[in-house]
Amino acid sequence: MFLFAACGDDDDGGNPSGTPTSPTARPTAPTGDAGPGVTDREIRLGMTNDMAGVGMTPYAAISLAVQAYFSYVNGEEGGVCGRDLTLDVQDDEYSPELALELTRIMTTRSPVLAMIGGLNTQAHLPVAAYLNDLDADGDRSDGVPDLFLSTGWSRWGDVTTFPWTTSFIPDFASDARAIARYINDEMPDAQIGLLYSDDEFGQDYRSGLTESFNEERMLVQSYPADDADVSDEVGALTAFGAEVMVIAAPPEITAQAIEVARAAEGDDPDFVLSYINQPSNLASDLGGGATAEQIIEGFRLADGVVLTSYLLSAVEDENDPAVVEHVRIMETYEGPDPSSLSIYGQTLAETVIETLTRACPDLTRDNVLAAAESLEDFEPTLLLPGITVSLSETDHRAIQTMQFWRINGDGTLEKLGNPIDGS
User: Fold this and answer.
1) What whole-number distance in Å separates Cα of residue 2 and Cα of residue 276?
2) Exposed, middle or buried: residue 61 (CB in 10 Å: 0-12, 13-18, 19+)?
3) CB within 8 A of 320, min separation 6: which ones?
4) What per-residue confidence (pLDDT) applies to 13?
């Protein structure tokens, strides 16, 4: 469960031409040590994803965007380390069993140097266990880089359990801590209610918020992740007198919670949402559909809602030079239609390329992991200003800073101060 959409201000990063510069250094000659998946001409990486949509997800666009960006780097930037990049994407149908089987094939029979962008916490758990200990003998020194996951579970940052795994999207606990700091800054005396799904996603928000708020100030209500009705839980929060309601739930549940809370007697609470809630999706759910009229009504109902984000938007930032270049790359190299998912895919690809560039000339699995851990304040072109990618040997959570926005009833977004660090 995750979301990539965000919105931001136009910013050319100080580049006088107004055209985003590539984060990739010029390639070197293909020398040095080479690990699996590396030849004099090619670097092969692997990824599994729900490519045909059997798992009812739209996430194939991420892999297609990564492939398009790799094609751009091969065609216009000379590749990386003097080699072309290839992403081998296999369709896992959003199934843990199939994801593991395909990963085994890609790391043994047709080996790749590293796996990137793994999706879905539950689907990736067995994959991560395998990649961090290939022969299950307890010795984790022979793993495969499991880089830049597209799942926000905070436990991926546990370098003892997952030494070869790094996350990419903001982990949910960091988002929760950023939300807590925002509330303490803006509404220091407010009573708080938390509605969260009772799974890894929601439990991260509970742990991140309970670090800051005691039981007298905050009431927490969980709901089963497969439940479609949260009326009772929202009723308990309104009865508690929650002046701020934090909702860690997907858009359809979030919309229901907002409707129930606003229909209750008493003061209308402020709402602060997990970043998995894209404004347009939330508006669609609040408005009852995807027609223009329903979206307009949905934004009217979402007026005043606060949410977090970390990426530029293909819609709100369409004139930003980085987004203009993104659209050109996707169109030129047969990528997906520009969207929050394609923006995310290119951001992931840029970070992979920066990692490989730092690993040159020794493209071994050990050196690639060390290169990822060396990233500090790296700025992919499509991240919001003030948000960077940083990792270390002891911290494998790539993005821990969030930008806050308020949704206006006319569908515009209002930037709220500077990004807040949730680490």
Assistant:
1) 5
2) buried
3) 8, 10, 11, 12, 312
4) 33
Nearest partner of 213 among 163, 176, 268, judged by Cα: 176
Specify whether the CB–CB gap between 325 and 381 falls below 8 A.
yes
Q: Do 49 and 59 contact (CB within 8 A), yes or no?
A: yes
Which segment of 26-40, 99-113, 205-219, 333-347 scores lowest on mean pLDDT?
26-40
Amino acid (one-letter) located at 39? T
Q: What angle do CA 365, 393, 40 make, to 5 degrees?
A: 20
In the block, tokens 């938390």 appear at 194
How many Å apart are CA 251 and CA 169, to the nearest integer? Answer: 18
Token duo for residue 199? 């799974």
Residue identified by tokens 């469960």 is 1
201, 211 Cβ separation under 8 angstroms? no
Instruction: Map tokens 């050319």 to a residue.
Output: 12
How much is the mean pLDDT over the chain? 91
* Cβ count within 10 A of residue 263: 11
Query: φ, ψ for residue 101 (rounded to 5)?
Result: -60, -45
Contacts of 242 (CB under 8 A, 6+ apart): 191, 192, 193, 219, 269
The pTM (predicted TM-score) of the whole model is: 0.90
Give Cβ neighbours of residue 9 (< 8 Å, ≥ 6 apart): 317, 385, 415
Contact (CB, 8 A) for 286 and 298? yes
- The H or E element spanning position 332 is helix 321-332
Give mean pLDDT, residues 165-182.
Answer: 97
Q: Give the position of tokens 């499991």.
A: 146
